[in-house]
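Quick one: structure tokens for this chain, please?
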Amino acid sequence: MGTNRRYPREPPPDGQRRHCWVMRTARERGPWPGLILEWRRTSSGEWQARVVYVPDLLRPESVEGWFAAANLRPLDPGA
């Protein structure tokens, strides 16, 4: 993300990692493997990520949506 000299932007949480676990959606609990496509800040200052994920590994389909950072976990938390 860019910065402005007068108003520096705080980077998104763990902005270098792209692979994640989606822990829950509005309807179901995960975890599901996901890929973070971009980050944005809400009007309240919270971070959200646009993520594509696979809710059922036995079906060849993916879902894309915006998730609060609290609903995401790094793929490898030790890295």
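The chain is about 0% helix and 45% strand.
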